[in-house]
């Protein structure tokens, strides 16, 4: 019986073997103890940018995102995680900023909401509607998960503690 083929790092094999262990090892090699610590340390980077920084081809952005959401569920920090993912998705999908006259925000909402557990569907809708109704200026981009507008909206419209 032949030995399993070893893939060189950074060659597009993000789904080979135990990707969770590989993600953990990549985070540890960068000096981080968790996906949360790593992601929170880069508040405006997209998941794609973060995955590439960890090891292009060694980790898929969605793997990093799944680890982040799982850690938030386990630690009771889902509101911060949701704010972070929302800020990143708005910055990624609306790079020129949120334009109140543009109807293309739905893609950002769909991608953000899909990243979170289904049980949060009503919460995501409530936050999104509040965001659409309180947008202070055209071309707004969140500065990160602690953007004052996002923090305020989540405090008023995110019914889940954490």
Description:
The chain has helices spanning 19-29, 35-40, 47-55, 61-75, 78-93, 106-115, 121-134, 148-157. It is mostly helical. The chain folds into 2 domains: 17-75, no CATH class; 84-162, no CATH class. α7 packs across α8. The longest helix is centred in the middle third of the chain and has 16 residues, at 78-93.
Short description:
This protein is mainly α and 162 residues long. The protein has helices at 19-29, 35-40, 47-55, 61-75, 78-93, 106-115, 121-134, 148-157.
Structural class of the secondary elements? mainly alpha
**How much strand?**
under 5%
Spans of at least 5 consecutive residues whose pLDDT stays below 50 are 1-5
Write down the domain tally. 2
Helix content: 55-70%
Q: Output the number of helix runs.
A: 8
Largest sheet: none
Which key terms come to mind for this protein?
single chain; 162 residues; mainly alpha; 2 domains
Topology diagram in text:
Blueprint: H1 19-29, H2 35-40, H3 47-55, H4 61-75, H5 78-93, H6 106-115, H7 121-134, H8 148-157
Helix pairs in contact: 3-4, 4-5, 5-6, 7-8
């Amino acid at each position: 019986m032949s030995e399993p083929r070893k893939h060189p790092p950074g060659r597009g094999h993000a789904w080979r073997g135990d990707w969770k262990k590989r993600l953990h090892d990549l985070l540890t090699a960068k000096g981080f103890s968790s996906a949360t610590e790593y992601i929170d340390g880069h508040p405006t980077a997209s998941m794609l940018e973060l995955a590439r920084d960890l090891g292009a081809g060694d980790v898929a952005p969605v793997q990093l995102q799944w680890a982040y959401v799982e850690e938030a569920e386990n630690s009771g920090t889902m509101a911060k995680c949701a704010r972070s993912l929302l800020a990143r998705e708005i910055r990624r999908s609306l790079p020129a900023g949120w334009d109140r006259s543009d109807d293309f925000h739905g893609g950002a909402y769909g991608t953000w909401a899909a990243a979170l557990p289904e049980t949060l569907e009503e919460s995501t809708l409530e936050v999104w509607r509040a965001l659409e109704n309180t947008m202070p200026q055209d071309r707004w981009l969140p500065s990160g998960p602690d953007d004052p507008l996002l923090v305020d909206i989540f405090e008023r419209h995110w019914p889940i503690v954490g």
